[in-house]
Automatic annotation (TrEMBL):
Compartment(s) of residence: Membrane
CDD domains for the chain: SPFH_prohibitin (cd03401)
Membrane topology: Single-pass membrane protein
Membrane-crossing segments per the record: 9-31
Keyword set, alphabetical order: Membrane, Transmembrane, Transmembrane helix
Location of the Band domain: 26-190
Superkingdom of this protein's organism: Bacteria
Range of residues in the leader sequence: none
GO cellular component, one term: membrane
Lineage start: Bacteria, Pseudomonadati, Bacteroidota, Bacteroidia, Marinilabiliales
Name by which UniProt lists this protein: Prohibitin family protein
Length: 272
């Protein structure tokens, strides 16, 4: 039988077409913006942890598997009950924002798989919240040390997640809910503490004002003692004579009687 090149080309084209139809979806992949991929080669090297595929068009062998991860910042909200230092139940609402570390997708896939949020992120956040809450009383968590509690939860959660190839962007305590009876008792105590602080402030202010007045009075008394010690009889007479001369020279009409006043000073009558 004579070999026909044309027929061979047709056969090859048909085979290629069949392969494309059957395996094209596995061979040709587009990784969207905000995504990364890792390849698993079951018949050769297994999971390629070091090579992370970026955005764009990619071709892989049909027997290999591409696992695509969303590396954008993601958010999970959790509502949970925790126990404080004294065993009191507290309801908290937590929000955590995170994203996988781009170049560690392969290691994340090897350890936790594509369901890493439910396998890793959520359990670690819950564990950190419970552990930290157990170190404080309900009053501290609710009011006096809330910022410290929130920061401690952030630090401990971030440390664990980063060790497992997750970048934690933020962790927020949206609300802390206590039993109404406990909440009312705490708020009443805080109100009394604020009133006591205000009263103490008023006392300190009044004590400061009293001290200021005492110092002012001592200053005036010292001034008067100095003046009295320096005012001799001769000086007073001299001042009286000077004042009499100034009044006598003024344009206002008056009557001046020499030697009729106290201590022999002139007596001045009339001021018109």
């Amino acid at each position: 039988m004579k070999f026909n090149f044309k027929t061979s080309y047709i056969v090859i084209a048909v085979v290629v077409l069949i392969v494309l139809l059957l395996f094209g979806g596995r061979m040709f992949l587009i990784i969207e913006a905000g995504e990364r991929g890792v390849v698993f080669r079951p018949y050769t090297t297994g999971l390629d942890k070091e090579h992370v595929y970026g955005e764009g068009f990619h071709i892989i062998a049909p027997w290999n598997e591409m696992y695509i991860y969303n590396v954008r910042e993601q958010q999970r909200e959790e509502t949970m009950d925790v126990l404080d230092k004294n065993g009191l139940s507290i309801n908290t609402d937590i929000t955590v924002r995170f994203n996988p570390i781009y170049d560690k997708i392969g290691y994340l896939h090897e350890q936790f798989g594509v369901n890493y949020i439910n396998v890793l992120v959520v359990p670690e956040v819950r564990s950190a919240v419970r552990q930290v809450a157990g170190r404080y009383t309900a009053e501290e968590i609710y009011s006096t040390k809330r910022a410290e509690v929130e920061q401690t939860i952030k630090d401990e959660t971030r440390k664990v997640l980063e060790e497992n190839h997750i970048n934690m962007r933020a962790l927020l305590i949206r609300s802390i809910n206590l039993p109404e009876q406990i909440k009312g008792a705490i708020e009443s105590k805080l109100k009394q503490e604020q009133e006591a602080l205000a009263y103490e402030f008023r006392l300190q202010r009044e004590e400061s004002e009293a001290e200021r007045r005492r110092i002012e009075a001592e200053g005036i008394a010292n001034y008067n003692r100095i003046i009295n010690a320096s005012l001799t009889k001769a000086i007073l007479q001299q001042r009286g004579i000077e004042a009499t001369i100034q009044l006598a020279e003024s344009p206002n009409s008056k009557v001046v009687i020499i030697g009729s006043g106290d201590e022999g000073l002139p007596l001045i009558l009339g001021n018109n």
